Amino acid sequence: MAAVETTRPAPYGAITTFRAINAVTNVFGALAAWNDARVTRNSLNKLSDRELDDIGLCRGDIEFIGR
């Protein structure tokens, strides 16, 4: 019975390119998450105390929501 090798090594620089693209993707993902949290905090800060109480929050909770 013969065994055939079906795997090939990755082309030169392929893994480095993959890691670089993955790092850039992670940076953009982190920036998007940070911006979403910032927008949420700003929107909640615009609400009155009564409106915050209606949704079960207080002013001190706003900073922890974005984290």
TrEMBL record:
InterPro entries: YjiS-like (IPR009506). This is DUF1127 domain-containing protein. Residues 28-63 form the YjiS-like domain. It comes from the Bacteria. Pfam families: YjiS-like. It comes from Tabrizicola soli.
